[in-house]
Amino acid sequence: MYCREFEKISALCEKLADAKIYDDAMEHLSDAAKNCTAEDEDDGDSSSQPMSKLENNSNSSSKWTPDELQLLVKAANLFPAGTGSRWKNVAEYVSNHAPGGLPKTEKEVIKQVKSLTSVDANSVSASQIKENGTMMKDSIATTTAPTEKSPTDAAEGWSVEQQKQLESALKVVPASDPKRWENIAAAVDGKTKKECIKRYKELAELVKRVLPLTVEPNVLFVEENWPLQKPLEVEICGDSFKQVRIVLGNDQGVFGLVPLTAKCGTLKLGGKHLDADTIDPEGKKGQFFSLVFEEKNKLQRSTLDVQVVDVNDNPPEFLNLPAEIELSPQQSVVGSVVYTVEVKDPDTGIGGVSRFAISGTDKFAIVNEKCSNSRCSAQLELKKPFEANKVEVLEISARDGASITKSSNEKRALLKITGVPGLQHHGYQKPNAPIFMSVFEGPLHISQNLRLSSKIVKVEAKSVVERNKNIIFYELGKPSAYFDVEKNTGWIRLKKSLQTVGDEPLLINVTAS
């Protein structure tokens, strides 16, 4: 049975191209069969007759003379494949130029072409028509050579009802049933087991012929130092890779398509290096791409998200680590936190996460490691008693990359810890008292002409108690006629002119709490 408009076949193929599973393909073919049947019935055809009966019982207008066959060849040359309303134009040409012949309809032209060749009517060439027509001549109208049927042709041997019965049986009868196809055939009127299996395979093959556009993986992590000519670790496949385009997300031409086979390909950088330190329009640091691929003349699209990874090219830096810490007996209680070590790493992501280690002692250990926004900290905890006048020199290391990246950087620093008596040069130190970070190795030289309220030097201390980390108050341990200290910042200011001061040094005693 032939549909009135063969152009509808292309629309059916597009639907089948989008079908991902067998049931979707079956549904599209069933709808197409219904439309064909309805159109043929409107023309007065008997849709229940097999194709062979229609050919044998056709009227005289379906018979072709040698002259008409030659005109058919000529018309096929005048209106090649791809011409709009090709078969309508061919039918009109033959009807207008045939000497004394009966008018030919579009349907009769298509039928005659299909009987002359085993290929699809829409792609048959004039040379094929001429060759077969010369050989078969007048007998062509009643005798046709058997041809191999495509899945679309095979659908003509299945009624809409049989198609529905097959679909229902495929859903009901499980694949684990040892007599699955016998039971399916029993549910389909007039069809054998072999015919049902063949029908299933033909439709499944039809779906497979049109490959979906796929991208594997659909999320890709790429290091910022990826070489320009090195293919990315992604595979893009479709019907024809030459027809694949990047339609969104590549405005700056960062990526280029690279074919691997006729159907598959990959990506490479298009002459522009990646940079994970890029600042986006929202002020965030990092580089990210969301690419959309499309195969030309198809409605299929696939996406790929590319996250640029920092290659960890910067080492961590210690923040305000003193050269020496003095421990009083009150601070030398086992389990006490002696100091909180802090580092900052310019790298982003995993490259900015540091891990700490110490060497040169068994009296201290690293505990409570934390990281946030490339700032990491760890506490130095006393594990064994520490006596007065005892000296330990620790080597503290901070290694970024969280110890899991291929490339990492390490920074080391020495910290001297000295045990002292209860009274220190800046007064008695209570348990868990703040530790001064500022180290002054000599006297400060101040101009006598310094203006009042000028800032002289800033004293910094750090709490060893985590909850009081940012709450430090400063005051003078002993009153001073010339100096004062800002309570919240630790800045020492001049409050009296130094014009009358002699050469004797002025002592400033500051406490932190």
From TrEMBL:
GO molecular function, one term: ribosome binding
GO cellular component labels: cytosol; nucleus; plasma membrane
InterPro entries documented for this protein: Cadherin-like_dom, Cadherin-like_sf, Cadherin_CS, Homeodomain-like_sf, SANT/Myb, Zuotin/DnaJC2
UniProt KW keywords: Calcium, Membrane, Repeat
SMART domains listed in its UniProt record: SANT
Annotated Cadherin domain residues: 251-318
Pfam families attached to this UniProt entry: Myb_DNA-binding_2 (PF23082)
Residue span(s) of domain Myb-like: 150-204
Region feature Disordered, mapped onto this chain: 37-63
Record's compositionally biased regions (Polar residues): 46-55
Tree of life domain: Eukaryota
Gene Ontology biological process terms in this record: 'de novo' cotranslational protein folding; homophilic cell adhesion via plasma membrane adhesion molecules; regulation of translational fidelity
Subcellular location: Membrane; Nucleus
PANTHER family: DNAJ HOMOLOG SUBFAMILY C MEMBER 2
The protein's name: Uncharacterized protein
Lineage, broadest ranks: Eukaryota, Metazoa, Ecdysozoa, Nematoda, Chromadorea
